[in-house]
Amino acid sequence: MEQTLKIESNIPIPERTKRGYSSTYAFLIKKMEVGDSVLIADKQQSKRFRAALYNQGYKPVQRKTEGGTRFWKMDKGSS
Q1: Cα 43 from Cα 69, distance rounded (Å)
Q2: Total domain count for the chain?
Q3: CA-to-CA distance for 31 and 40, rounded, in angstroms?
């Protein structure tokens, strides 16, 4: 069965949506203020959250603590 293709004009291109782990954590990151932190127990989830913070334009600061890894949301220019 052959598909018939139709050429169309003036169709707007939709905005791109982010996929993957960045979008999974985007809601949480958006709710966090700069300087806020979150504790994540799972090692794989920690890696994903760190990447999501970075991909959202923030500097992730992390420290291993009892119970997991704590991440702080910091501005890129912060030390």
Answers
A1: 8
A2: 1
A3: 16
Rounded Cα distance, 77 and 31, in Å = 20
**β-sheet bridge partners, residue 37:** 72
Query: E-assigned strands of 1-79?
Result: 37-40, 58-65, 68-75
Per residue in 38-64, pLDDT (tens digit) is 999 999 999 999 999 998 899 999 999
Domain presence at residue 4: no
CB 69 within 8 A of CB 63: yes
Judge whether 27 and 62 are in contact, CB under 8 Å.
no
Q: Which domain holds residue 35?
A: 21-75
Measured CA distances, 13 to 6, 7, 9, 16 (Å): 17, 15, 11, 9
Q: Is residue 51 part of a domain?
A: yes
Would you say the pTM of this structure is higher than 0.90? no
